[in-house]
Specification:
six-stranded mixed β-sheet; Glycerate kinase, domain 2; five-stranded parallel β-sheet; 2 domains; Rossmann fold; alpha/beta
Length: about 400
């Protein structure tokens, strides 16, 4: 009995790109494809606006990857790249490459002190190189500065009550008394910005940038409270000085509030990143006639349903009537919403106690094994015997 299986994983943060994850899944099913009437595998690696967006768009649309040195999240220089599509005068900027959490060792992760300035510097360089449309991938950030760092790269100044310019970091949001746009409008004349969000969280509240993502970036409970108050103050000031209300926009809380900052300062359109990418890679066409789809990423939890890549795959698979299995480094929390969307099953790639470091080092082999075992369970559920026992000639 021949089968068609689609492999559509997101990146596994800090260890496997989406493409590498798809290859690992393929290797786990290689024995089945060798059978006389085996499995046809179709790789469709995805991204949701976070890590891997640039790679996926380059694979689908081509373009020129250009490197440059910018300000890192802790103000130390980092070398990163963006993708330029000359025929479209479009630049794709991945925030994770310039201001990402993965750029900092754990002991330096503190969203009250980090900045998104480097991502803004990449965007400004891209405009100088001829880009007229900027696609900014939000996700994987080390920051909670509401995009002040990004805006500062375009000359926007944030002043305290004494008129002293503040460093564009999360810990200073509550101290801002005045915003000076400088040459921003002139620099961005006839430039359009599109923010590709990996989550749909608003800026404030229990689902906001500070409460949900602050702890993941190293914030203590006290710092989460400080960031929440600072973000609320900043949002109120933006309404007063710019006449723009962005706090409740879906995706405003993405990347430490960069979604809100891009909407406020650059009139950016906020779009769910996974929907953009799934259309680009042609997932709907790949699902036609498929028997099963695998997806996954580093962590699967209650937040995944809020715009993450695997949730997008689950929804598209459900619409196509195809079962969807997710494999992640960690499966935790309440997955009820994912199951409501159509998730068939979820598996961890770790079969027993293992350190995070070892899991990352062995991620490729672990993912291959977990995919194979999940597929065997799928076959058993359908009452189908393996075409031949995996690993046997």
């Amino acid at each position: 009995m021949a089968m068609k299986v689609v492999l559509a994983p997101n990146a596994f943060k800090d260890c496997l790109s989406a493409s590498a994850a798809a290859r690992a899944m393929r290797s786990g099913l290689a024995d089945f494809t060798d059978a006389a009437e085996g499995v046809t595998l179709l790789e469709k690696p995805i991204a949701d606006g976070g890590d891997g967006l640039l790679e996926i768009i380059r694979e689908v649309m081509g373009g020129e990857e250009r490197s440059l040195e910018v300000t890192g999240p802790n103000f130390s220089p980092v070398t990163c790249s963006y993708l330029y599509l000359p025929e479209k005068a479009t630049a794709v900027v991945e925030m994770a490459r310039a201001s990402g959490l993965a750029l900092l060792p754990p002991e330096e992760r503190n969203p009250t002190l980090t900045t998104s300035r480097g991502t803004g510097e990449v965007a400004r360089q891209a405009i100088a190189a001829g880009a007229r449309h900027l696609v900014i991938g939000l996700g994987g950030s080390a920051t909670t500065d509401a995009g002040c760092g990004f805006a500062a790269a375009f000359g926007v100044r944030f002043l305290d009550r004494q008129g002293v310019e503040l460093s564009p970091i999360g810990g200073n949001l509550g101290k801002i008394a005045r915003i000076e746009l400088g040459e921003l409008r002139q620099l961005c004349q006839d430039i359009t910005f599109e923010a590709i969000c990996d989550v749909d969280n608003p800026l404030l509240g229990e689902r906001g940038a500070a409460a949900v993502f602050g702890p993941q970036k190293g914030a203590t409970p006290l710092q989460v409270d400080e960031l929440e108050k600072g973000l609320a103050h900043w949002a109120g000031l933006v309404v007063e000085e710019l006449g723009v209300s962005v706090a409740s926009l879906p995706g405003a809380g993405a990347a430490g509030g960069l979604g809100a900052g891009l909407a406020a300062f650059f009139s950016a359109r906020l779009r769910p990143g996974v929907e953009v990418v799934l259309d680009l890679v042609g997932l709907d066409a790949a699902l036609r006639g498929a028997d099963l789809v695998f997806t996954g990423e580093g962590r699967l939890d209650g937040q995944t349903a809020g715009g993450k890549g695997p949730a997008g795959v689950v929804k598209r698979a459900a619409l196509a009537g195809v079962p969807c299995i997710a494999i992640a480094g960690e499966v935790t929390g309440d997955l009820a919403e994912l199951r409501r969307l159509g998730l068939s099953a979820a598996f961890s790639l770790c079969s027993g106690p293992i350190s995070l470091q070892v899991a990352k080092e062995q991620a490729e082999n672990l993912l291959a094994r977990a995919t194979r075992e999940a597929f065997l369970a799928f076959l058993a559920g359908r009452g189908v015997k393996p075409f031949r026992e995996p690993g046997r000639q």
